[in-house]
Design goal:
255 residues, alpha/beta, UDP-N-acetylmuramoyl-L-alanine:D-glutamate ligase, six-stranded mixed β-sheet, 8 helices, 38% helix, globular, binds pyridoxal-5'-phosphate, HMP/HMP-P_kinase_dom, hydroxymethylpyrimidine kinase
Length: 255
C-alpha cells in the first residue's frame, strides 16, 4: 500500500480547493490520501456562502477509524473551521508523534470568503505551530498569525512560536511579474524560488501545494526536496487551470 497522508480538510463543492484538491494533489505526488472532513462549505469558484463545521467528536472518530488501518506517514491540515477542531487535531497529533505534519494555516478562501472566525482561529493555531514539520502560510496568513507586518520579522516570530520549517508563499505580495517563495528551516533561509506570475486568480492553489508537499514527505523526501517537487508540479497545473466562468477563479487541472 502506498504511504498515506491523512488530511484534515473541508469539502468545497466546486472541487477547486479543500479535500478534493488534497486528494488529487496527493494522488499525483504518488501517495494515498485519506480524509477526516472538518466542514462542509457552501461555495463556488466565485464566493463562499457559508459552512457547517464537523463536531470535534465526529472529526476525531473519522481520523481514529483509519489509524492502524492505513499506513499513515503524514497528516496535512487545511480548513479546520473551529477552535474545537484545532484543539482536536492538536490532541490527535500529540497521540501520534511519529506522524509528519504539514500545517496549511487556512484562514480565508482565496475568493475572500470567511472559513471561520479569523481572530479565534489565529489564537488556536498557536497550539499547532510547534507540532508541524512544515507550515505553509501565504503572506496574509503569516502577518495574521504573528501580528507583524514585516515579512522577515513575521517569519522570525513564527520560529519563536515553535515553528520548525516555514514556506512563505509570496503570491499575495505586490510583485506583478513574479512570485517569490522562501523556505526557512530552523530559522535559516535554505532556498528561494521565483516563478512568473500567471494571469488570473486560482482556487485551491494553496491546498494543492501543501498536499503535494505532504505526499512527497510521506514517501521519504526531505523538506527541501518535497517543496521543490511541489512547486514545480503546482506551476504546471496552474498553467493548465480551467476557468469555469469569466468572473470565477480558475480551477487547477491537477491531472
Ligand atoms: N479549504 C477549503 C474547504 C476551502 O474552501 C478553501 C478555499 O476556498 C481552502 C481550503 C483554501 O484554498 P486556497 O488553496 O485557495 O487557499
Amino acid at each position: 500500500m502506498r504511504p498515506t497522508v491523512l488530511c484534515f480538510s473541508g469539502l468545497d463543492p466546486s472541487g477547486g480547493a479543500g479535500l478534493q484538491a488534497d486528494i488529487e494533489a496527493i494522488g499525483q505526488s504518488g501517495a494515498h490520501a485519506a480524509i477526516a472532513c472538518t466542514a462542509l462549505t457552501i461555495q463556488n469558484s466565485q464566493q463562499v456562502f457559508g459552512f457547517e463545521a464537523t463536531s470535534k467528536e465526529l472529526l476525531l472518530a473519522q481520523a481514529n477509524a483509519v489509524v492502524g488501518d492505513l499506513p499513515i506517514r503524514c497528516v496535512k491540515s487545511g480548513m479546520l473551521g473551529t477552535t474545537d477542531n484545532i484543539a482536536a487535531l492538536a490532541e490527535f497529533l500529540q497521540q501520534h508523534p511519529d506522524y509528519l505534519y504539514v500545517l496549511d494555516p487556512v484562514l480565508v478562501a482565496n475568493s475572500g470568503g470567511s472559513l471561520g472566525d479569523q481572530a479565534t482561529l489565529v489564537k488556536a493555531f498557536v497550539k499547532l505551530i510547534p507540532l508541524a514539520t512544515i507550515i505553509t502560510p501565504n503572506t496574509v496568513e503569516l502577518r495574521a498569525l504573528t501580528g507583524l507586518e514585516d515579512i522577515e520579522q513575521a517569519t522570525a516570530q513564527l520560529f519563536n512560536m515553535g515553528a520548525k520549517a516555514v514556506l512563505v508563499k509570496g503570491g499575495h505580495e505586490d510583485t506583478p511579474e513574479h512570485i517569490r517563495n522562501a523556505l526557512y528551516i530552523e530559522g535559516e533561509l535554505v532556498s528561494e524560488t521565483t516563478c512568473a506570475r500567471l494571469e488570473g486568480e486560482y482556487h485551491g492553489s494553496g491546498c494543492s501545494l501543501a498536499s503535494f508537499i505532504a505526499g512527497r514527505l510521506a514517501q521519504g523526501d526531505n523538506i527541501q526536496q518535497a517543496v521543490n517537487h511541489a512547486e514545480t508540479w503546482l506551476f504546471h497545473v496552474l498553467q493548465q487551470a480551467e476557468s469555469p466562468t469569466p468572473n470565477g477563479q480558475k480551477i487547477p487541472k491537477r491531472f
